[in-house]
Phenylalanine--tRNA ligase alpha subunit
Amino acid sequence: MIETIKEHLAEVEKFASTSKEEIEAFRIKYLGKKGLLNSFFAEFKNVPNDQKKEFGQVINELKNSATDKVNVLKEALESQVEEGKYGDLTRPGEPMEIGARHPISIVKNRIIDIFSRIGFNVSEGPEIEDDWHNFTALNLPEYHPARDMQDTFFIQTDPDILLRTHTSSVQVRYMESHKPPIRTISPGRVYRNEAISARSHCFFHQVEGLYVDKNVSFADLKQTLQYFTSEMFGKSKIRLRPSYFPFTEPSAEVDVYWGLETETDYRMTKGTGWLEIMGCGMVDPNVLKNCGIDPEVYSGFAFGMGIDRIALLLHQISDIRLLSENDVRFLEQFKSAL
Ligand code: PHE
């Protein structure tokens, strides 16, 4: 009997397997309820007394050996499954798909970069505005006809709460909370109730700029704009056409000379070579006063441009609606852009 157990012991020590089923069968054979070990233990009472000690020792040895074996093999099996789960950990990684910035962000970041080089910081404000910051402080009192220049989405009336129609509202907030010298640009989304077409949408994006200090002149404005157009478009020939904005006096539209070299130039500039890119002017003294700045001491200039139109221009996008559709096939095309 003892010899048989010793043979089993040798067999147990030799056993190896990576199959779950085989390991389980091995466990049942030795350690199961009707397994060999239990039958050996049952034999114990029939063993002559002088052999009991040795018999007891070998079955205990067999039991420990079989239990250890099952545990070791099961552990190995599990860690193999783990490994399988993560694949071959030494394999080189898959190249990661790189995303693209939205063309609006690309253009906005470039504009911010250009103005930050001449000392402008970035200011932001709420898209939901009150009447004061969007209109009244900007020299557009109630019933002023110029309010119709920008069709407004109202959220609530009396008191009026609305979606800002320009980021000039941010400039008002900035002047209310900062003392001159002020050099800030305000990028952001603005809303106007316009018929949606290939060229216009009910929301778009602006960057407006504001400079307030002692002795700021129209010449400073012109020089700043020229710097901007040459950095942004590589074109420094600009012209200022007299215009009207309630918050600036005098006011002007800025055209940049794009040229007439290609067919696209003809189409974009309607055969003139000139492109209108923004509005600007000297901040109306009333606006400075409304914002707590003494117009007798300080003067300033302001300008505002639409980012969407510039993005269409620079990336030759034919329809403004593409900018808000979030079609990945469209967005992916901007991977190589900054
Ligand atoms: N706020 C004007 C607009 O939205 C743009 C502008 C800003 C014009 C500053 C002049 C000065 O159309």
Notes: The longest helix spans residues 49-86.
